[in-house]
Structures are given as structure tokens and as C-alpha cells.
Amino acid sequence: MNGHDVVVIGAGVAGIQAAMDIANHNIHVWLVEREPTIGGHMGMLDKTFPTNDCSMCILSPKMAEVGRHPNITLLTLSEVEKIEGTAGDFTVTVTKYPRYIREADCTGCGDCVNICPVEVYNKFDAGLGVRKAIYKPHAQVVPNWVVKDNLHCIECGLCYDVCGKNAVLHIDEDRVQTLTIPAAAVVIATGYTLFDAQKKGQFGYLRYPDVITSIEFERMINAGGPTFGEVRRLSTGETPKSVVFVQCVGSRDISVGRNLCSCVCCMYALKNSMLIKEHYPDTEVTILYNDLRAYGKGYEEYAERAKQMGVNIIRAFPGEVQQAKDKLVLPLEDTETGEFKNLEADLVVLSVGMEPEPDTVRLAKSLGLPLDAHNFLSPADMKLDPAGTIRPGIYIAGAAVAPKDIPDSVISGGAAAMKATIDSYASEAKQ
């Protein structure tokens, strides 16, 4: 530990990229992540657009490299409480919450998971799947340790008995720790959260079981998800014969105070609609959109490919979703033809937008960093210094700055990393 280390807050794809770039310049990095594993939202996805490459095939090598990099110290189940000081001389206070596992001894074998009798909803599966009270969020976690959830643990003792390494700890054997890290620079890459679809009550989310969000659909169609890649109606378990994607749920909507575009929703709906057509060619798939925003390299061709596969793309915004026998009915006006119709669907997928993480807002306010109208972090200069802030030595990256897709998040993480690297070298030169 020394004064020219760098602290990266958030270990999604932007934070991972920033940490790797800095560490490869022979600078020690503290990578702080509040979840039990690194990877962020990208690890929950099935495929990525516009290539339809496997998401974890891209992310897992990066996660593994971070996990074994000699210049990176991973702090999972950890949160930054405060940052004090100035550029080149920061003091970062981190709270590390107990895992109730002796990390040095845990091999991640999963014997304790298999024997645990308690099942609760799995946050990583967006609530569609279940996990045990002692668990790994998914099979490719980094670091490869289990975590014990003492909120739901019934202290049956089976995990203590089955662990050959005696790595499972009792409640009184692990405590909250506070770490104080001197650092030359800090990168904030705390990502995003998703819009709460319940705020758009007309769509019936959580009222009708066959109305789900896009992240729930991502877990459903993922081969590593709770249904092993099979798309199912939650009401009956049957394969839906018609699926409707509703765009701009929590984006471009003044009524809920979200008049910004979330950047990725059009493209991930196109991607998921194509995945349905590949898996179930006879399923009717419709996308209801306001404006189709396929702006990136190869994106417009991607949209055309979806149309050629038989995806119906209608410029319309539905009214109140209603249940009619075993179907969902979406009343709408096709704004290109002026036609009114009632669209029937077995499954409705709400394309929810990105929102800032509440903890990012808390941290920004404590640091005196400005936020934009939607509470995303504001750069010092959007054109000339998109990774910088008004506080020298503190840099921002990824979807904490604005809604971004994966390539833009990686680029953003790299830009912040180079800024932090310069500060670290300058701090070292002064010592």
C-alpha cells in the first residue's frame, strides 16, 4: 500500500477495463465492488449486439485476468464510505462486509451450496430463479468463493459439517471491517440501476405474471439462467406463441421525470427478438417503438436483419395492458398508418431504461461532484474532458456518467484509466 495506488469504485465492465489498464502500467489498483462477484450487469446478459457474441465469453476472460493480476487487489462485498484529500494524496475509507467464509481456505467447490436446504430468490437471476442461503451468484464468479447470507440462514449446521476445509464461519467469527487506503487517484465506475417498471402501472408489471422486464427476459433466455435458455410464460410455463416488446419504459417519458433516452433499449430489444426467432421460428414477435435508435456501427444493418427474420416493428405506444382470458391485450395506434388495433400477446417484455445508482448520488454529494438533471455524474467538460470532474484526481467512467452500451463503457473506462495513471506517475515522481 502506498500513496500512488489508484482506487476504482465499481467492477462492472467499465471498472474492470479501468483497473486492468491502470494495473498494466505497473500501478497497484484497489478494485472495490459491493456485490460478492465482479462483472456487473454485463454478466447477466445472454448475447451482445450487434454481433450476438456470448456476453460472458467476452467478460469472463477480463474477470479472470482481474482476479489473478498481481497489481490488483479485489475488495468484494465492499463500499466506499468517504474520500478525503486532494489529487495525489487521497484517503479512501472502505467498509468491507462479512462474507462469513474464510476466504483463504474456500475453494469454491460448492459442497456447502448443494447441502443447504434454504432457497430464496436470486438477485442475479432478477428474481426469476432461486439460490441457497450459502451460494455463488453464478458459476463463473470472481473471486471463486461462496458467500453466506446470514439474513436467510437458519443455522442448521450442515454447511459447517460438509466443508472439508472448515472454511464456513459462524456469525460471531466474521465482522465488518474498515479499510483506509491512500491513493493518488480515484475512478468512479459505479454503473446504473434499472427503472422500476411498477411506476408505469398501465403495463401491469407484477399485476400480470406474463408482463416481465427486459433484464428478467435476459436471464430467461440465457442458457445459464433459471429456465436454461427456454422462454416461458410465468403463468403457465408454456412457450409463448406471441411476444411483444414495449420500448421506452422509463425513458423519454416526462410523466415519470425521465425525459432522456437510455441508449441501449432499441438495440437490446432487436437482439432479444432475433434470439426468440432463432429459438422459436413460429413465435410471433413484435416491437412497439417511439423512434428506432440504431445509431452505432452496424446497428442499422442489425435492425434490418431483425425485420428480415420476421420481427414486426410497429411505431406505437400501447395503452393500458389488460388480461383477456389467457392472453394479454395491448390497445394501440399505429402512428405510421393511423390504424387502431388491439394486439394480443402471450408474453409482454418491458424495455426498461437506465437510472443512476442511488449510492453513486450519495457519494457524489459527499464529494461535491455535480450531477446532471437526471442525477448522472457530470464530467468537467463533456467534449474536452469527458472522464474528468471538477475535483482533480477523481475520474468517472461508464454508465455512471450517462446511459452507455458495452463498447462505449469500455472506452470510457480506458479514458478514465489513463487520467488516473498520469496522476499516479506524478504522485510517485514527487515522493
From TrEMBL:
Name the Pfam families for this protein: FAD_oxidored, Fer4_9, Pyr_redox_2
What are the 4Fe-4S ferredoxin-type domain coordinates in residue numbering? Answer: 97-127, 143-174
Signal peptide range equals none
Q: Recorded E.C. number(s)? A: 1.8.-.-
Spell out the PROSITE patterns in the cross-references. Answer: 4FE4S_FER_1 (PS00198), 4FE4S_FER_2 (PS51379)
Cofactor(s) the record lists: FAD; [4Fe-4S] cluster
> Which pathway does this chain act in?
Cofactor metabolism; coenzyme M-coenzyme B heterodisulfide reduction; coenzyme B and coenzyme M from coenzyme M-coenzyme B heterodisulfide: step 1/1
Q: Which PANTHER family match?
A: COB--COM HETERODISULFIDE REDUCTASE IRON-SULFUR SUBUNIT A, FERREDOXIN:COB-COM HETERODISULFIDE REDUCTASE SUBUNIT A
Which family is it part of?
Belongs to the HdrA family.
Q: What is this protein called?
A: CoB--CoM heterodisulfide reductase iron-sulfur subunit A
Q: Which organism is it from?
A: Methanocorpusculum petauri
